[in-house]
From TrEMBL:
InterPro entries: NA-bd_OB-fold, OB_Ssb-like
A Pfam family assignment: OB_Ssb-like
Record organism: Eucalyptus grandis (Flooded gum)
Lineage: Eukaryota, Viridiplantae, Streptophyta, Embryophyta, Tracheophyta
Protein name: Single-stranded DNA binding protein Ssb-like OB fold domain-containing protein
Domain named Single-stranded DNA binding protein Ssb-like OB fold: residues: 20-95
Signal peptide: none
Top-level lineage group: Eukaryota
């Protein structure tokens, strides 16, 4: 009986911030945190922060939730896998939801 081979994973394709479009999903990016502002304080059920992140082409606001807030340190570099673009009041926001093991946020 032949062994079942694992499907070969595709190599991740990283995009630049200037290439992002509204409602894009499955994004892989490497960005640097420029500025962070906490929008939901620690006393609440859910913590949230807005971080201005960017690369050498452009900048965008990243919405960090719960444990992600701790990674939003000015000057740190983040690798986002399977992130997405959300629209908020007509502006694009970068968001990341960890729903399975294929997705991760590394600082």
């Amino acid at each position: 009986m032949a062994e079942a081979s694992k499907p070969e994973m595709k190599k991740a394709v990283f995009k630049k911030v200037c290439e992002l479009r509204p409602l894009d999903t499955g994004l892989n990016l490497t960005v640097k945190v420029v500025n962070t502002k906490v929008v939901a304080p620690r006393g609440r059920q859910m913590r949230a922060a807005e971080a201005l992140v960017g690369d050498d082409t452009a900048m965008i606001i990243f919405v960090a939730r719960n444990d992600q807030v701790d990674l939003m340190v000015e000057g740190s570099t983040l690798t986002l896998r399977n992130a997405k673009i959300e629209m908020f009041k007509g502006s694009m926001r970068l968001a990341f939801y960890c729903e399975d093991r294929q997705q991760y946020l590394a600082g």
